[in-house]
Amino acid sequence: MNMKLFKILCACCIILLFSQCTDTKEKEIKTEAEVVREELQPFSWKAANIYFLLTDRFNNGDPSNDVNFDRTNETAVLRGFKGGDLKGVTQKINEGYFTDLGINAIWMTPVVEQIHGGTDEGTGYTYGYHGYWTKDWTALDPNFGTRTDLEELVEAAHSKGIRILLDAVINHTGPVTGMDTVWPEEWVRTSPKCEFKDYESTVTCTLVENLPDIRTESNEAVELPPQLVEKWKAEGRYDEEMAELDAFFEKTGHPRAPRFYIMKWLSDYITDFGIDGYRVDTVKHTEEYVWQELRKVCDQAFSEWKATNPKKVLDDASFYMVGEIYYYNVQSGRLYDFGDRKVDYFDENFDALINFDLRSGADRSYEEIFSSYDAILHNELEGFGTLNYLSSHDDGNPFDKERIKPYETANRLLLAPGASQVYYGDELARTLIVEGTNGDATLRSFMNWEDIDSNAETGRILEHWQKLGRFRRDHIAVGAGDHTMLSDTPYTFMRRTHHDLPEDIIVIGLEMEAGVKTIKVADAFADGTMIRDAYSGVSSEVKNGQVMIDSDYDIVLLEKSEE
C-alpha cells in the first residue's frame, strides 16, 4: 500500500475513533442528567419534605475551618461555633442520609459571612454561629466553608433530586461589636426598638437592641458602606463587585437603595450556584412590597440560571419562596393581622408561609388537624401552600420538647396536608433541653449522630421517620391531595391529587391493631388491585372493597403495587 495513502487511512481511523469516543462521552453525560430527572418522583413544593438544619450544628466535615477571625472567646452554653459546615452536609448527602429519610429539599441557615466579634446582650457571650448576623452578603463565612464547598453541595444534592434552600435576611445587619462597626445612617436605623403594637411599631424599628435595621423603605440612592469598600479592596475584588452592581442596576432600573443592593447579592446565589429557593427571615418586620420586589429579582435570576445550565435543571418547578412570619397560623388564610392593618403576604411574593399552628395541636386529633388544613389549603389558599413544623431553632414551645412522643411527632408532621419541615434531629429525638443554656440555644445542640449506633430505640425512631418520609416523598398526594376520612375507628383516610397535579392516590391507617388488619379501600382502589403496604412491605389484593394486611405494626401506608 502506498505509504501516503496508509497515513491518510490511519489518520481517518484516529479521527473516527476520537469522534466515537467523544459522542459516547457526551451520551454518557446526557444520560446521567436524564437519569436523575427520570428517577425523580413527581414534585410539588406544596407537598415537599424539607429538612431544616443549622449549618454549624449538623455535621463537621472539615475541622480545619472550625476557628476563624480569632473567634476564641469563651461563650455561653451553645452560643459559639461548634464546627458544622457545608462539607459536613455534602458528606451526609453523598452517604444517602437524606435520601433514606425521604427528604427532597434541604434548608440551611444563612452561610454568608458573619460579624467577626461577639455580643453579650443578656444571654451570655455569643458569636454569629446561627448565620443571622450578616457582615458581608457577598462572601461565605469561612467557618461554614468556601464557594467551592457550596457549589459541590448543590451539585451533590441535585444529583439525588434534592433541592437546596438558603436563608435570606434583608431586615437587618449583624450587631455592632468591637470588631464590627455600624453601617452608615442612610443604610440602617438603630432605634426605636420594636414594640409590636401595630404595623408601624413592627416594621420601622429594630427587632432588639443592637440589631441595626436596614432602611428597606428608602428609595434614596446610597453609596456602599465604607467598611465594605475597604474589605473588598483588601480582598482584591472591589472592581469586580462594583462592575456587577453597575450591571444589575442598569438591567433592573432599580435605584441604588439599600434593599436593592441586598437583593442583588442574594440573587447571586441563584445565578452562581443554582439554589432552588429562599426561606425568608423576619418577613413581617419589612414592608410587604419588598418581598414582591425580591420575588421578581429571584425569578429572573432562576430563569437565567436555567437557561445557562439546561442539563442541571431538575424539572419545571419554579423558584420557591417561603416566608417566616412569627406566629402566622394557616387557619388565618391569606391575611396577617397587625391590629391596625391586614396584609396579604401571598400577593405576588410568597409560595408559602411557615405554619406556627401545627406545633400547638397536642390536644387535637389527627382528623381535626388534617381535615381543617385540607379545607383551607383547597379553598382560600388554593394555589399556595404552607410549611408545617413541630420543632424549630427559635420556637421555645415545640410540640414535644421532652421528646417522649417521637412516633406521634412523625405522624402529625409527615402526614399532615401541606409541606413538612423536619428540624434536624427530630428523626433522632435529639434533645431540646440542654442544662445551662439561655433562650433558644437549648434548641440548637449538635446533631446526636452517635445515638444511631449506641441506642437501639433511636434506631427504631429513625426507621419510622424514614418510612413515613419516603412515603411522603414518593406520593405527592400525601401533602397536596384532597383529604377524605374513610373510617373513624380504626382511623383511616385517603388522599387523592386533583387539578394540575400528577395522578396519585393513597390510603393511610393510624392507631391500628398489630396483626391482621382489614381496611376499607373501595373509595380508593378497585377490586382486583394489588396493594402494597409501604410500611411493612406486605402486599395484598383488594377484594369486596377491602384489603387485608398482616403486619406487626399499628400503621399502614397503602399504595398501588408496582409488581
Task: Provide a compact summary of the structure.
By secondary structure, this protein is an alpha/beta fold.
Write up this protein.
The strands form 6 sheets. This protein has an 8-stranded parallel β-barrel. 33% of the residues lie in helices and 18% in strands. It has helices at 3-39, 55-58, 86-95, 97-100, 147-159, 200-203, 226-234, 238-252, 258-273, 288-308, 366-377, 406-414, 450-454, 456-474, 476-480; strands at residues 49-53, 105-108, 112-114, 134-140, 163-168, 188-189, 213-214, 277-280, 320-323, 335-337, 342-344, 352-355, 385-389, 419-423, 482-487, 491-496, 505-510, 515-520, 530-533, 539-541, 546-551, 556-560. By secondary structure, the chain is of the alpha/beta class. Helix 12 links the parallel strand 13 and strand 14. It is built from 15 helices and 22 strands. The chain has 2 domains: 44-180 and 277-300 and 310-480, TIM Barrel; 482-563, Immunoglobulin-like.
Query: Helix count, per DSSP?
Result: 15
How is the CATH topology of the largest domain named?
TIM Barrel
Care to count the β-strands? 22
Please state roughly what percent of the residues sit in beta strands, choosing from under 5%, 5-15%, 15-25%, 25-35%, 35-45% or over 45%: 15-25%
Which strand order spans the largest sheet, edge to edge or round the barrel?
1-2-5-8-9-12-13-14
- Alpha-carbon Rg, integer: 26 Å
Q: How many strands, which pairing sense, and closed or not: the largest β-sheet?
A: 8 strands, parallel, barrel
CATH architectural group of the largest domain:
Alpha-Beta Barrel
CATH homologous superfamily classification of the largest domain: Glycosidases
CATH class of the largest domain: Alpha Beta
Task: Report helical residue fraction.
Answer: 25-40%
The domain tally reads 2
- Unreliable runs, pLDDT <50, ≥5 residues? 1-5, 12-18
Mean of pLDDT: 94
Structural class comes to: alpha/beta
| C-alpha termini separation | 61 Å
Q: Give the CA-based shape.
A: globular
